Amino acid sequence: MIDVSVVIPSRNEDAMLWATVVSAHESLQAARVSYEIIPVVNGPSPQIAALMHRAKLAKVYCSDASSPQAARHVGAIAAKGCWLFFLDAHCIVPQNFFLEMLNTLDRSGATLLHSPHRFLGKTFYGFTVDWDGTLWAKDTIDVPPTDQRSFEIAVAGHGAIGMLRHVYWKTGGYWQALRGFGGEETQLNLKMWLLGKRCAMATRTHHWHWLPPQGRHDESMFRDPDFIRNHLMIAEAYGGSDQLRRTRDALEIKGGISIPLPCFDVNTLAACMDETLAAGCVGRNGIACLRKQFEHEKVVH
């Protein structure tokens, strides 16, 4: 039986993938667990695959998946571990990472556990969220509000997350309708909250974002067509037309551009909602539930 499966989506990041896999390998060995590392790359990478095969580090899967979340889903299908982790190919982890994340998952009761990420000299511990407006991170949490092993959060960006593999499948996992980068963690975290699950942030380990994600770490992401499309699709599927307009308005302010209201294909939205409803989510009324739940947390997470 395998304890831990680590899925690493890699889109044109072959040179960085090696460092990510090696750091994961060393951390998993230190945790003394049985494991498998599953990189999913967007095209043939014979040199990287051969190196990893000879070093017995990982089994590389080649896929034409059009987005990171689709690649993660491919890896999740191949995974056999009890615990499922997703780690980005432009990230590396310290030696205590998996031991600390597994201990925290076990003790905290969190459904989904994020790791703080260090980037550009700062450590980020998740985000506050304005559920009434934007459906994504509002303000960053730079200092953990507790000295405990973890604390509850609403949303955090990706980099490194862990959960039980059966929970990933029971809750429907990532939406395959999303494209490119942006929104996938908003969707996954939001779905967990709608299901009454707990999302948490670990405090005693971290991962390094040692390269800007796809070179974007400024307001330009709010002008990216896929980023815009993903957030608007999430808004309409979960919140209906009112939420769609609020999210569109917020994106226009963030990106400084004019965005026409989209008309999503009914079948695409239905497929998204079918996944959500099949997982037991409360559907479009969920946004109102979230507002009530977070009413007292407008300023602090």
What this model shows, in words?
This protein has 301 residues and is of the alpha/beta class. The protein folds into 2 domains: 4-215, Alpha-Beta Complex (Spore Coat Polysaccharide Biosynthesis Protein SpsA, Chain A); 219-297, no CATH class. It has 9 helices and 14 strands. The chain has an 8-stranded mixed beta sheet, with helices on both faces. Strands 5-14-7-8 form a 4-stranded mixed beta sheet. A two-stranded antiparallel sheet has the order 9-10. It is globular and about 50 Å long. Mean pLDDT is 79; it is low at 130-136 and 280-301.
Task: Tell me briefly what this model is.
It contains nine helices and 14 strands. It is of the alpha/beta class and about 300 residues long.
